[in-house]
Known about the structure:
The structure holds two protein chains of two kinds. By secondary structure, chain A is mainly alpha-helical. Chain A has helices spanning 4-21, 27-54, 58-91, 105-112, 114-145, 150-161, 168-179, 192-199, 213-239, 243-251, 256-267, 269-284, 288-293, 303-313, 317-348. Chain A folds into two domains: 4-91, no CATH class; 106-348, MetI-like (MetI-like fold), CATH 1.10.3720. The two termini of chain A are 44 Å apart. The longest helix of chain B has 48 residues, at 2-49. At the A-B interface, α2, α3, α5, α6 and α7 of A face α1, α4, α5, α6 and α7 of B.
Amino acid sequence: xxxxxxxxxxxxxxxxxxxxxxxxxxxxxxxxxxxxxxxxxxxxxxxxxxxxxxxxxxxxxxxxxxxxxxxxxxxxxxxxxxxxxxxxxxxxxxxxxxxxxxxxxxxxxxxxxxxxxxxxxxxxxxxxxxxxxxxxxxxxxxxxxxxxxxxxxxxxxxxxxxxxxxxxxxxxxxxxxxxxxxxxxxxxxxxxxxxxxxxxxxxxxxxxxxxxxxxxxxxxxxxxxxxxxxxxxxxxxxxxxxxxxxxxxxxxxxxxxxxxxxxxxxxxxxxxxxxxxxxxxxxxxxxxxxxxxxxxxxxxxxxxxxxxxxxxxxxxxxxxxxxxxxxxxxxxxxxxxxxxxxxxxxxxx
Amino acid sequence: xxxxxxxxxxxxxxxxxxxxxxxxxxxxxxxxxxxxxxxxxxxxxxxxxxxxxxxxxxxxxxxxxxxxxxxxxxxxxxxxxxxxxxxxxxxxxxxxxxxxxxxxxxxxxxxxxxxxxxxxxxxxxxxxxxxxxxxxxxxxxxxxxxxxxxxxxxxxxxxxxxxxxxxxxxxxxxxxxxxxxxxxxxxxxxxxxxxxxxxxxxxxxxxxxxxxxxxxxxxxxxxxxxxxxxxxxxxxxxxxxxxxxxxxxxxxxxxxxxxxxxxxxxxxxxxxxxxxxxxxxxxxxxxxxxxxxxxxxx
Lengths: 349, 298
């Protein structure tokens, strides 16, 4: 048995490799082969290392074994996060082709070119508007649904939460359909927003072309996606506020609104901060929504989207890297906070 | 004392009976309005995807409610999108990308998390602190150098290229979550296993992994949704060639080439959503548990 399994795994990997390399193979077979390689490969790696370690002299085993456990993780992190990060910072001081040193030219460009400034301005607007609305709506929904019976509470929360499973691309299509506009003579309006607009007697509007409001219409998509996350975390926090404190405030004659604003919100403030920062990080890196909805045109470009366009469309690795560094610099304070919080936790353990 | 409290209590109730009743209705009304606002966008896409092409592009989807019973429905949009627009293939590619991109980081992270929690080795503390620092690195930082690296070694556009990229990007969170959980398992359990002569590898596979199923499941759902829904990493490392492109890319291309053919776009959008929605609704409990464990703590 102990011999059969490794041999079967090795044969499976070998067969999968042949299928993957053969370009004429059937798609289903290729996918199956990919699954075999990907899944068996990683298990095989650890079993192989363990097998080797067990054949080492006793005195070495204890020293080597921890590195068989963490080694792969360290290698992956070094190659896929640490090295690229250092390299991107380096590239941001080179020219478009990544050959000549140009000093801080790429950064000067960012602060003087109008479209780069626009991207910065828009990104800041996203980072303020989206977390604000996600947290406020999420918190409101969590508090109000807390008063329902547990079944209808869970049921109603599912609908708010559901968009979390939808991709940014999928959500963009969903909302392009809402914002759809047809000029006169091209048929009835089939976008919901223009349908409502007409029903109340107004002229249809090309929503996504209305600068600067179109930015707001794109932000709505991300609010729609992120509110569920905020709601779930805040709801769990609200439920952990001790019932006695709330009852005590009620008996003292505090109105429901006062109970909420003076008792509940202060006791969940740390959760609100965590939710807000998590949403801010997501928003800061938003790329897909702008890319799919407008391609960054009509004054809707943001930093993360501009970074991809600079590098992949204009082939300017210097500017692309500089924009990526801008994304990084903004999250460094969070990095420090996280590490500090971990150190404190360890100290109190 | 007891009587006094009870007295004020009933007094309070009497006083606010009417306002409590209206309160309850106001609360329900607000909740219903929000739920409808959240549901309608998806509902419009779902309904449109089953309407015949001519109707989708001629009238708003909400007219189906005006003449309930006399509507025409069709599956034609789905069969068009799956075959001639290549969504069937893209769906398979997405599976080939997503499943290993979920299994590989979990496996690597679980071994590492066990080592960080229960093994002694030099540098243990500061390596783990570095992992925490890496948690917030935007993946945009990695795109350009990794693409150059992949091009040099000829890995670009292959499945392993994207598996490894997703593994790298998902690993810090996975190690962090799993280490918190695995580290909280009782130390006495580990000690008695050691006394029985079990090696670390045996303890890990036979004891720690079975005990960690809840946290493994919640991270798996996270990573699955994240990889399945990803556009950027797939666009950069796998590319848009019809034979390898994943389903989000197929939808992006459909949006570009047939941006006004809403019968195809809505069906395509729904195909991309179907699997994550099913996973999500089926395993919601684990997902919520993972979310709260990941962020409420601390």
